Amino acid sequence: MAIDEALGPKDKAALQDRVEIPAGLWTRCESCGHIVYEKEVAEALNVCPECGHHRRVDARTRVAQLVDADTFEEFAADLTSTDPLKFTDRLPYKERLEREQKKTGEVDAVIIGKAFIRGRGVILAVMNPKFIMASMGAVVGEKITRAVERALEEGLPLIVVTASGGARMQEGMISLVQMAKTSAALARFDDAGGLYVVVASDPTTAGVAASFASLGDVIIAEPKAMIGFAGPRVIANTINAELPEGFQTAEFMLEHGFIDRIVDRGQLRSELARVIDYCGK
Amino acid sequence: MSSSATALTNSNHTSGLSGFLEFEKPLARIQHDIEQLQHEQDGGSKKLAVNIRQQHARFKSTMKRLYSSLTPWETVLVARHPNRPLSTDYLKLIFRDFTELHGDRTFGDDKALITGFARIGKHKVMFIGHNKGKDVKERVACNFGCAHPEGYRKALRKMKLAEKYGLPVVCLIDTQGAYPGIGAEERGISHAIAVNLMEMSRLRTPVVCAVIGEGGSGGALGIGVGDRAAMFQHAFYSVISPEGCAAILWKTADHRKQAAEALRITAPELKKLGLIDTIIPEPMGGAHRNPEAAGEALEKYITTSLDEFKLLATDALVAKRQQRIRDLGSFYDSPSELAAREKAKQLSARRSASRSTRLAKRYVASTNITA
Questions:
Q1: What is the ipTM of this complex?
Q2: Sign of the CA dihedral B5, B9, B15, B17?
Q3: B238 to A213: CB separation less than 8 angstroms, yes or no
Q4: Tally of domains in chain A
Q5: Span A66-75, pLDDT tens digits
Q6: Each residue of B196-250: pLDDT tens digit?
Q7: Is residue B225 located within the same domain as residue B358?
Q8: B290 and B319 fall within a common domain
Q9: How far apart are CA B70 and CA A41, in angstroms?
Q10: DSSP string of A121-132?
Q11: Fewer CB within 10 A of the end CB, N or C, for chain A?
């Protein structure tokens, strides 16, 4: 601590640079600050071996971590945004999308498919926090809806791994109504007695939190995942006060009765299999 | 997004113009002239009376000009006008026999959403409406119309009651959004809204929605899923407030006008996008200048919709509603479709451009105009 305090921000940056010299091999855990061996982190499903911090993972990595090897059959992979508003802020939305597509190799912020988890067939949707923070526009809404419909058709459990900054502003009201669209599809699925399990990962917020992420028959969350509706800064400004420690985390949601379980990433496969065995048909 | 903030900006946008909005400055000036003339007229000159009448006509024509071409940001200002009629006004103007039903049976009674039995035309309905409050005391009590989870749960409870007894549900939306606070999160605002979306989509009774002022994001949609959605002509409906959007995307709230433009939040834009079904006309100069006329138009929309839905069997009604929601939002099936469409668009643009040049040339030739 004492040394830390003595160092200026420039010194700290220099120090950090020096510590991270073997680029990619070793990194600093964003939560505990320990220097961790990347390979070890990857083997631990992107969980810090020192503090158990669950890192955000892209959708493909998540799928690989969750399903039986080589069982994921993706569908509706190519659905593409129409840029319905011809939206431009500091950058045209179209360009922003292209940039994200190039960066991630994905077309939009969710992938859906059929897969097996410990031998149990499921329809799986995984949101991608690395793609515009998995914000929900027409494509995400449509793909979640199609996943629901496929689960309904095939009589399979539906598992959605949520992560999202909320509605995609650049698609305006079209993104807002995706909340209704996904929830309405889930109403049909519910009527048919389908099993719907949510795995809420960091961050599950705003329009996604206030639609399909809150409608699971069983809702599981990863430790310390941020889960909430309004942005913390908006709340702090409105009430003009500091927010309590641990506000809008998975633990907070568990304490207040809005999720069923908090499960470590390493246990997700077995937990999901168990839920399916209790509820699946 | 933040409740108290907009209330303050409201007064800012009208300050110094005594009830006039920023863009209504020309109207304020004419009004000022009229008042002065009236003051002078106390003597009783005929010439002055004529002059006053002329000024009134000028006022009217200026208002017509201003309101026939409101920018999206001006629309926001009109929708937030402090004198704009609220749900409670329409309750008095067009509903009869309102019997308020309080409480969510779990936590409390949220005054930001009022619910109860009411009659409109020849229909008995369940009324659900945001309440922004008429005066400071009431506004504080109902958080300026920003509902907590208990508000959404109260609304759903009453909708379920309506379903049980075959009463149609009428939802009047007017909110900046759900209340962003610690209690709201602790009591599951996400969950409350999500459940409403799901349940309203399968409610076995007609649901008619109208945005009467502000349609603020999830807080609006939380009572906004139904068989038909309408907006008042100068209402707006947005995924995020223009100020909030500007703060995030432009990193400064100063760009709220651009944000209001880019977000396409006005009734005509949303009708074009297929997100609302009906635009309810407002009296010239906005609903606040003639609440009775606005009420009449709203009543017509509600009663004609209810007349129509009454003829549908419940299964057909719900199936139709589900399909309506299913179709919200468009997308391309693949990036190659996107590319193909853009190419086609460019081609047709070029074609129409060359066609117009050809036509222009022909016109020039036929009239012997030398360029």
A1: 0.91
A2: negative
A3: no
A4: 2
A5: 999 999 999 9
A6: 999 999 999 999 999 999 999 999 999 999 999 999 999 999 999 999 999 888 8
A7: no
A8: yes
A9: 56
A10: EEEEEEE-TTTG
A11: N
Residue that finishes a domain, picked among B45, B69, B93: B69
Q: Distance from CA of residue B130 to its chain's centroid?
A: 12
Which domain does B171 fall in, by range? 78-326
Name the pTM for this structure: 0.90
Give the whole-angstrom CA distance, residue B117 versus residue B97.
Answer: 8
CATH number at residue A184: 3.90.226.10
The rounded distance, in Å, linking the Cα atoms of B360 and B363 is 5
Nearest chain B residue to A143 by CA: give it: B331
Domain that includes residue A250, residue range: 56-279
Query: Do residue B8 and residue B51 come from a single domain?
Result: yes
Which chain A positions have a beta carbon within 8 Å of B238's beta carbon? 172-173, 176
Q: Is B35 an interface residue toward A (CB < 8 Å)?
A: no
**Whether residue B134 is found in the same domain as residue B262:** yes
Range B62-67, long-range pairs (CB < 8 A, 24+ positions): B62/B26, B62/B27, B62/B30, B63/B27, B63/B284, B63/B285, B64/B284, B66/B23, B66/B24, B66/B26, B66/B27, B67/B234, B67/B284, B67/B285, B67/B286
What are the counts of helices (DSSP H) followed by strands (DSSP E) for chain A? Answer: 11, 10
B 267-326 residues inside an 8 A Cβ radius of A: 270, 273, 275, 322, 325-326
Q: Do A216 and A197 meet the contact criterion of CB atoms below 8 Å apart?
A: yes
